[in-house]
Every structure is written in structure tokens, then in C-alpha cells.
Specification:
The protein is α+β, with helices and mostly antiparallel strands and 113 residues long. The chain has four helices and five strands; from the N terminus they run αβββααβαβ. Bound molecules: guanosine-5'-monophosphate and zinc ion.
Length: 113
């Protein structure tokens, strides 16, 4: 936990959020500025600043996040129609919240990168 971190505060319930997925390891919340009809942030309860730090210190957290994404996508029946996962990393990656998270975007056809 990091007392200054907005996603840690969301995990602790100190800042409200719309949770669409939750288990002992991971939460999935609606992004406040959705970029697609379905825009969910998958966040591990353990604080790490980005995917590299998570990979170095707690690689199991990555597996737990992707298991959560699998479960959610099957529940929402977007596993067949498809979805996009993004992890913005660092300043050039456009990261604005420094608690590792994965954006799940779905509900429309994405443009090719
Ligand atoms: P990043 O830019 O770091 O990849 O993603 C951060 C995301 O968090 C942004 O898409 C932004 O809209 C979202 N966000 C920032 N603050 C909050 C908040 O308080 N609640 C929710 N649900 N999303 C937030
Ligand atoms: Zn945090």
C-alpha cells in the first residue's frame, strides 16, 4: 500500500469507484473517462508502480491480473467478440497513475495500431 496512491485509496474504499470485478487479488473498475463502450481498469491489490516493477518483485501478480481478465471477459461474453489490453508505462507511454493497471477496452471494433 502507498498512502499517496489514488488506486490504493480506491482499493481501500477511501475513494468511490464502480467495481465490475473483484476477488482476493484483483479489482476491475470502470474508467472515469471511458475511451470505449466497455473500459475497465484491472488493478492488483498489491502496489507496484508499473509492469516492470511488478514483473521484478511480484511476477505472480501479472498472472492473477490476466486470470481476472479471462474470467471477466468470459462473464461479459466479450471473449469471442474480442477486446484490447493496454498497459501505459512511464511518461512516453502516457501513464498518469503510477499503480500498475491494465486497461481493457471493448464493445466496439478497434482501429489497427
Ligand atoms: P493511465 O493514464 O495511467 O494509463 O491510466 C489511468 C486511468 O485512470 C485513466 O484512464 C483515467 O481516466 C483513470 N482514472 C484516473 N483517476 C481515476 C479515478 O479516480 N477513478 C477511476 N475509476 N478511474 C480513474
Ligand atoms: Zn497504489
Amino acid at each position: 500500500m502507498n498512502d499517496q496512491c489514488i488506486f490504493c485509496k480506491i482499493i481501500k474504499g477511501e475513494i468511490p469507484s464502480t467495481k465490475v470485478f473483484e476477488n482476493e487479488n484483483v479489482i476491475g473498475i470502470k474508467d472515469i473517462q471511458p475511451a470505449a463502450p466497455i473500459h475497465i481498469l484491472f488493478i492488483h491489490r498489491n502496489h507496484s508502480k508499473n509492469i516492470n516493477e511488478m514483473c521484478a518483485n511480484n511476477p505472480q501478480d501479472l498472472v492473477e491480473i490476466f486470470k481476472a481478465i479471462k474470467e471477466f471477459s468470459e462473464q461479459e461474453k466479450i471473449d469471442q467478440s474480442g477486446f484490447r489490453i493496454i498497459a501505459n508505462t512511464g511518461a512516453d507511454g502516457g501513464q498518469t497513475v503510477f499503480h500498475t493497471h491494465f486497461h481493457l477496452l471493448s464493445g466496439k471494433k478497434m482501429h489497427h495500431l
